[in-house]
Amino acid sequence: MPKGWRAALIAFLIVQTAILVVLAFDVPMILTSWASSAALIGGLRNSPAARPLAVAGGHIISGLVGLGALALAQQGLPFDPRWLIAPGVGLAVFLMQATRLLHPPAAANPAITLVVPTVAGDFAIALFMGAALLALLTFLLDRVDGAGQEAMPNDTV
């Protein structure tokens, strides 16, 4: 199978599995950042950003930043809450870099909380479930294809 098709199939299977889990467990939302994660995991198997710990950690870090931005936005700011998107993304990237858990697709999570009508509890459920599921699927995929042996989460991204 050509490399591009393999990456596409992996991304499809990851997103389809996530959707099945969301529907089976009645998770209140699907994060669009999961699709980008699936593309990275499928297409760049040996990238440090596609390692299970980086996938989970990156989503959790940036998701918590997003929840903080959402909480701040709900305080009745004197400006449009969308002004918090850029600082949220910047802070999330900084924290992911500082912890060596950079997973670029996860940087979208602060924006998701401020653009999509979001209930903090729903987002938190989706965030932690998605982070765990994506990391588990990446781990299992690594066992099947042996990817990720050269690049560990502590490597420089």
| Strand and helix order | HHHHHH
Largest sheet data: none
> What is the averaged pLDDT score?
90
Number of domains: 1
* Portion in strands: under 5%
Number of helices: 6
- List low-confidence stretches: 151-157
Radius of gyration over all CA atoms, rounded? 16 Å
Helix content: 55-70%
Describe the structure.
The chain is mostly helical and 157 residues long. The protein has one domain. Helices cover 65% and strands 0% of the residues. The radius of gyration is 16 Å and the shape is globular. The relative contact order is 0.21.
Keywords summarizing the entry:
single chain, 157 residues, mainly alpha, globular, disordered C terminus
Topology:
Elements: H1 3-24, H2 33-43, H3 52-73, H4 85-98, H5 109-115, H6 120-145
Task: Write a brief caption for the model.
The protein is mostly helical and 157 residues long.
